[in-house]
Amino acid sequence: MTSRSTARPNGQPQASKICQFKLVLLGESAVGKSSLETFARAKTWVKELQRQASPSIVIALAGNKADLANKRMVEYEEAQAYADDNSLLFMETSAKTAMNVNDLFLAIAKKLPKSEPQNLGGTACRSRGVDLHEQSQQNKSQCCSN
């Protein structure tokens, strides 16, 4: 395999890798997982993931439908406290307006292991290149704009 070097901000070369990970969106039927996701049932899913998955799993909690603040079912502080207590990433999102959608997936990617994994099923890295830098604001607005 070939390796490619990219320059770090300090000018030092850095070998890049392409890593593949499984991304699973969990939630009740018809809650909008294909757009993003309910809080009461999310706790059950989190508990199950923590029980069965690898200890290095990255779990993110998306507080979706932030564009409907007047119909809020869960206060931000409650969701953030739950996320903090369970070592989860948390962001309020809106699939309708694309608010924080790219940012949430970028935050997940940044939390993934940087080194070669040892038998973490479904995870494979090979030397090449990957760019996890944020996209331009113009590209962000194109996501989920239906």
Structure summary:
The protein is α+β, with helices and mostly antiparallel strands and 146 residues long.
What does it look like?
Strands 1-2-5 form a three-stranded antiparallel beta sheet, with no helix packed on it. With 146 residues, it is an alpha+beta fold. Helix content is 28%, strand content 17%. It has helices at 39-52, 76-85, 101-111, 137-142, and strands spanning 4-7, 13-20, 60-63, 89-92, 124-128. It is built from four helices and five strands; from the N terminus they run E-E-H-E-H-E-H-E-H. The termini are far apart. The protein is globular and about 45 Å long. Mean pLDDT is 74; it is low at 1-6, 119-123, 126-130 and 136-146.
- Class by alpha and beta content: alpha+beta
Q: What integer value in Å does the Rg equal?
A: 17 Å
Beta-strand percentage range: 15-25%
Distance between the termini: 40 Å
- Oligomer status: single chain
Apparent shape: globular
Number of helices: 4
Q: Which range best describes the helical content: under 10%, 10-25%, 25-40%, 40-55%, 55-70% or over 70%? A: 25-40%
- What's the pLDDT, averaged over the residues? 74
Number of strands: 5
Q: What string, H for helix and E for strand, traces the elements in order?
A: EEHEHEHEH
> Which strand order do you get reading across the main beta sheet?
1-2-5
